[in-house]
Structure prediction request, 329 residues.
Amino acid sequence: MQERIVKPYSGWLMLVAVIVAALAGLVLLVAGIARADSGNGLAGTVMILLGLFLMLDAFVALFGFMPVPPNMARVLLLFGEYRGSVRESGFFWVNPFYSKRKISLRVRNFETGSEPSPSPEPQGTSSNLGQGVAAALSKLKKSRTLGKPTKVNDRDGNPIEISAVVVWKVVDTFEAMFEVDDYEDYVAVQSEAALRNLASRYPYDSHDHEVSLRGSPDEVAEQLRQDIQARLQKAGVEVLEARISYLAYAPEIAAAMLQRQQAQAIVAARTRIVDGAVGMVEMALQRLAEDQVIELDEERKAAMVSNLLVVLCADRHPQPVLNTGTIYH
Prediction:
């Protein structure tokens, strides 16, 4: 079965009809009682019964009124059989015997790792209420606790902590209501599973232009959205966005990984410095030869290259040494 959209009757027209039926039933009831007192018992009885029927019919019809706020829907059931869903907002009337279940079509979001927690018990509620009443009160309003990052190993086996924010909404009321037990809990659990699977497929960081969790946020976010959407296909839910909100190494290896990142940064910086220094030395030797400023043998060239590299690659300012002799002494 699939979602079936129904067009209910206007609630305002039916409200007028119910009021007219109730007034007509009241008038017939009063008139029937008066007719019965005047001696016409049969006509009075018929009028009384007709008036009671109209009043009872108006009373039963009151249960068919159904307000639908914007971005909300009602799933209609008739003795357990699915009859359709109402997505249009407004004031409507349906079969009074329909069971009308509310479901939200609004955009919702949550952070992985968070858990639903009931709201505090309302003030004035006695502590000796039955368990069923207390449970019903606790479900009136739910909130979510702050999420704890999920600890998982990345592709390289490094333990990391990761969390993601998932933005979603219901697009098929039938599947959301009847294909899964609790679609909100289903979304949370499947999103957590998809995040764990994604984190184990990519490295935390990469320096060779490979897709990584830290270096490729857009690619990883799109892949996470697709993974979650594939898992929620049967729940009637559309994932609008899924993005990593927290990413860090686990505390037990954070210090070691920080040292490794610092070492990699130092090596990368030194590599760039050496490349630049070699180019400058090469340019200096070439200019000296072209301008014929001085002629150096291979040994003196090697000494000059060594001195220039020391000056250019040193991590502190070099101390100059003056040679008061000749170039060879």
User: Anything to note?
Assistant: Confidence is low (pLDDT under 50) at residues 119-131, 133-141. The chain has eight helices and twelve strands. Residues 254-313 form one domain.
